[in-house]
Write a structure and sequence with these properties.
Elements: H1 8-24, H2 30-39, H3 58-70, H4 81-92, H5 95-107, E1 112-115, E2 131-134, E3 138-149, E4 156-163, E5 173-179, E6 185-190, E7 200-211, E8 215-216, H6 223-258, H7 270-298, H8 302-330, H9 344-354, H10 359-370
Parallel strand pairs: 1-4, 2-4
Antiparallel strand pairs: 2-3, 3-7, 4-5, 5-8, 6-7
Helix pairs in contact: 1-3, 3-6, 4-5, 4-6, 6-7, 6-8, 7-8, 8-9, 8-10
The structure holds flavin-adenine dinucleotide (FAD).
Protein name: Acyl-CoA dehydrogenase
Keywords: FAD, Flavoprotein, Oxidoreductase
Cofactor: FAD
Amino acid sequence: MSTDIEPREHTELRAAVSALGRRHGPGFDRAALWAEAGKLGYLGVNLPEEYGGGGGGMAELSIVLEEAGAAGAPLLMMVVSPAICGTVISRFGTGEQKAAWLPGLADGSRTMAFGITEPDAGSNSHRITTTATRTEDGWVLNGRKVFVSGVDIADATLIVGRTSDARTGNLKACLFIVPRDTPGFGRRHIEMELDADEKQFELTLDDVHLPADALVGDEDAGLLQLFAGLNPERIMTAAFAIGMGRFALDRAVAYAKERQVWKAPIGAHQAIAHPLAQAHVELELARLMMRKAATLYDAGDDLGAGEAANMAKYAAAEACVRAVDTAVHTLGGNGLTKEFGLARLVTASRVARIAPVSREMILNFVATHTLGLPKSY
Ligand SMILES: Cc1cc2nc3c(=O)[nH]c(=O)nc-3n(C[C@H](O)[C@H](O)[C@H](O)COP(=O)(O)OP(=O)(O)OC[C@H]3O[C@@H](n4cnc5c(N)ncnc54)[C@H](O)[C@@H]3O)c2cc1C
């Protein structure tokens, strides 16, 4: 892909992560790549330097995930651990919380998952019912979460709840750090049709007692703190999707140049070449939108970043789904073999269309907030 409008440091970061990703490559050992990327400072490029991070922002972190994915070695937990949890703790955590978590999140020695989705709330986060009740020395949490990624490998999960005095109505979100082995914090593995190392879990919070300092930020700050984490999540999901789309497209282009069943390689047929070219254009466009979202976010424009991050996630997911579909078709029968490893991306490419916010909810957002149309739900 052309990278000419990027600052030189970004191009260099891209090249370095790409080389690391290729060294690990498809079929990679997730934990080994995570550890090495952490040691090299890539997992914490967005976190403050005083806590061991790189002092950059989402522009840099999204490059890391995109390039790892484009090399066939995506690190899903980057969407959650440094991007959501690292950002929220950096921006709203106490000095103690920052000192306790950020150095480990930055060098990859600690990981944090993120749980907001609930079985009865789904896309409607205002309906979440995980409730925090104040005790003499802290909090008790009760509730259920679903589809939470990586809880088994994370040291803790950042759980989104609401306080018992704000049990109904629009969500006034509170964020709690729940260590993995806290009594009452149960998990059940949900079997997914996804060929990925990171697992999804249903969580039960059954009288989970937490100290007062488990709460990150202000219990009255509401959605502001939550969105400080959700916009990075959308930007990183875009990076995940663009990386996967590029990986699939690269493989298909290489195949189309080599495979010959008539006089010329199959890539000489426009029926094969045009969809590949279209996939490339769409991935480049999505990447531009992702860059806009990251730039606005890093500049502190949370509102502008929100709209751009939604659009980038939408564009990247759609581009990824089409790139993978095109790639599989380009390879004919080999598109479905284990050897070429593209068919497994068919389900994986759908993840970004569904999570963390579905395609339809983004269209709802754009229709209502950008275009000013009446809210439909
Ligand atoms: C692989 C994977 C990993 C995940 N990891 C995490 C994680 O780490 N942490 C976490 O908290 N969550 C996670 N999720 C959950 C994810 O964020 C949710 O699946 C997503 O938000 C959609 O919620 P839902 O599945 O309940 O779908 P629903 O809300 O039930 O939606 C179902 C369908 O209805 C549509 N729909 C709903 N409302 C409307 C409307 N008003 N207008 C039009 N269409 C509508 C949706 O677009 C969707 O197509 C993960 C999901 C997956 C698949």
